[in-house]
Amino acid sequence: MRRVRTNPDDTRALTMGASVLVGLGEPERALAWVERALTIDPEEPIIQYNSACAYTNLRMFDEAFECLEAAVVRSSLSRSWVDNDPDIDPLREDPRLKELLERVDNRPVDDSPQPQ
Question: What is the CATH number of domain 2-105?
């Protein structure tokens, strides 16, 4: 939270902080932070992925899938990252996640850094 106060355009801090805000019972503020991050840096795969996690925590599953899709299209998101991320757990039984992970499995390997 302090990072966002001192660096209000830090999109990584905004998206990660949004998930924290959900846990603190501040969903409206969390949503505003996610939307701000996506407005500032809409093409960045890590911001898309972290936004998907925040949207999942907000129970906004359609928005979460839009961001996951963007993260997959724009990066080398690894299957193991998604498989082990507890923020994604509420999406596990959704057929959209299974389809998206099949696309991840069938794409060429890339050694780019993964979201954090």
Answer: 1.25.40
Question: Taking 70 as the threshold, does the pLDDT of residue 115 lie above it?
Answer: no
* Crossing angle of the two packed helices 45-57 and 27-40, in degrees rounded to 10: 160
- Percent of the chain topping pLDDT 70: 91
Measure CA 91 to chain center: 12
CA-nearest of 66, 39, 31 to 52 is 66
Query: Quick one: residue 39, left, alpha or beta (phi over 0 = left, psi -120 to 50 = alpha)?
Result: alpha
Residue 13 · residue 23 · CB < 8 Å: no
pTM: 0.85
